[in-house]
Amino acid sequence: MKKIDGGVTAAKGFKAASVRAGIKESSTKTDMAMVYSESPCAVAGTFTKNKVKAAPVKWDQHIVYDCKVAQAVVCNSGVANACTGKQGMDYCEQMADATAEALGIAKESVLVASTGVIGAQLPMDKICNGIKELAPKLSEDLEAGHDAAVAIMTTDTRPKEVAYEFEIGGKKVVVGGMCKGSGMIHPNMCTMLGFITTDINISQELLQEALSEDIKDTFNMVSVDGDTSTNDTVLLMANKEAGNEIITEKNDDYYKFVEALHNVNVFLCRNIAGDGEGATALLEVKIVGAKSTEQAKILSKSVVTSSLVKAMICGHDSNCGRIMCALGYAETELDPDTVDLFYESNAGKLKIVENGVPTDYDEEFATKILSECEVTVIADVKMGECEATAWGCDLTHDYVSINADYRS
Amino acid sequence: MKKIDGGVTAAKGFKAASVRAGIKESSTKTDMAMVYSESPCAVAGTFTKNKVKAAPVKWDQHIVYDCKVAQAVVCNSGVANACTGKQGMDYCEQMADATAEALGIAKESVLVASTGVIGAQLPMDKICNGIKELAPKLSEDLEAGHDAAVAIMTTDTRPKEVAYEFEIGGKKVVVGGMCKGSGMIHPNMCTMLGFITTDINISQELLQEALSEDIKDTFNMVSVDGDTSTNDTVLLMANKEAGNEIITEKNDDYYKFVEALHNVNVFLCRNIAGDGEGATALLEVKIVGAKSTEQAKILSKSVVTSSLVKAMICGHDSNCGRIMCALGYAETELDPDTVDLFYESNAGKLKIVENGVPTDYDEEFATKILSECEVTVIADVKMGECEATAWGCDLTHDYVSINADYRS
Fold it and tell me: Which domain holds residue B250?
């Protein structure tokens, strides 16, 4: 298993393209992307649990749950196509239709994704022109994949892509992906938009199961601001071009794939968290010694979503009471009097609380640890052997600036 | 029922005092307060559900649950006496003991409250000196009550006190209170510290029931930052000095008292929310047309705690999709396609969403409404006849400034 260059075009047979359709007139950034596989793909997907679902979420659920096969994804940033009623649903279908026509495939082979402002209708003339431009630009180059990762960004400050390679029966298999997400990030199932491509040959059922299981430990453990978006979508397409014998059961090959998928997802999640709106640091919260994974997850998410803990990371100020407080109000079992807390980063590791009471730790060293751009808080709750990790970021002035005036 | 001047000393027989004990050396503010009644009081209390409970919370639970009678409260700001182990518990008892000695009453008649930094031990010499100074300063003046409300403040920008007067069988009855709370406010039972005094004659059982019921619609509906403190406490003391016939059943007199208590609590809650750390505006979220009060509460708290909605209020920027999004991820029933949304403030009222889709509303007018210092968001979910209101505030740069560097 090794990490390789590239993202959605790293796996064999996948092409990507991006254009500036001008959806947000004030922006000079590319704002549409397309991903395409010449061979039909088994497709898996996970979607937001928000009851307010954007039109493309409803469309993709139909494709993933009913059709189970797809060849293309078309995505725009700038407008989310959420809270747009029947007209929004019609526009979404028109996006699929225009893409299908441009690529010469069936409308039901096209997945659609939108991200941006909620409550506005898509500018369909620009979207349709964009689609016409995208189709002839499709390329297998790694750069085309990279540019697609840029085109789907909204308030993200950097594109997020990664790929892993491994072997099955002598055949090279690649899993690569890209995602976007910076604000409104608290996936209750997945993050805003994630697209993962692989050339593995695997049954659609196992593909979906691998994705559904893995997001519980990855995308579902990310929180930037506690807001679960209306558009959260992770799509996973497998086009079989690696040429391995089809995987139809949970054998060693399946678990190799699961490991690669997990590596891709963890990388993307850490990048979403670290690039949270206004963030200066990735905050990783690891609970060890829990009675169950469920308990560890509840505790880690409680700490990673605490505004006061997040502000403390921003200030590099060791106020460990806030962490104890956030553990204490999590809705799960806890004996505060047995908790040990640690800070860890590239600067070192330090025990700050022992059995629920602050140790006589070196404040200066604590500040040094908390000043790194990736900080881990570890809580040992001493109740068992289970653990979980959640990812978030600090709460900064820039988060407020970005969101107090997002639309302008 | 009328609103009158004063706070904890408005009711007959209650005295208060405040001093600067120097708990936070850098501060010149008063930091200790005492409330005292010459006659023993029936006492009721509600406390944080955080599993990390400060020592004074444990002490007060003992007094309220086991003793049910008290005469004094002693309170310090600066140090929370939470996460302080056995030593913290000993110190808390010493505070009660010193107060009992100074007042010539039993230790079990003294309630204790602390607020401030978690994880630090109390400076007991300063605390004990403070208590000795407080006792002789006790006064029935309204000003003494006001000064006590100032002394318990931490990051609050203004003291919070109120009193109501009504009659029972020709006897004048007063309910007055003070509270503090600005950050770490998301009471899962009550807010950080609230002290309510009344001269009514009522059984302890009904006093506790009146408080326990009312906080569900008042203190439990306030959120500044989603963090449930380790110290949340509301205490209600009734010293019988109004001279009314004792209330032992839920008759008309009881409901008059409940109404006065509710008015006091709503006033205090709105003030806590509007004075949230860094806040420039009170955000009130009212859900109408719900199937049940429970559903209305879940929906209103989901909106009032949304970082993106809070930042939008700060920016006076009508981004109604964020409100729809927060309604959608609340863990309760909702049909997004029937939701109507309104903004309301002193500047006017405006429908911004009808049946789940934004109306063609006047943006300029929306901004005007959102620019007031008290803003109400109303959602009609058209499923029934129930309603609920939650109180919070906007998310601002100052919230980050205050909390990124709270201890220094």
Answer: 2-274
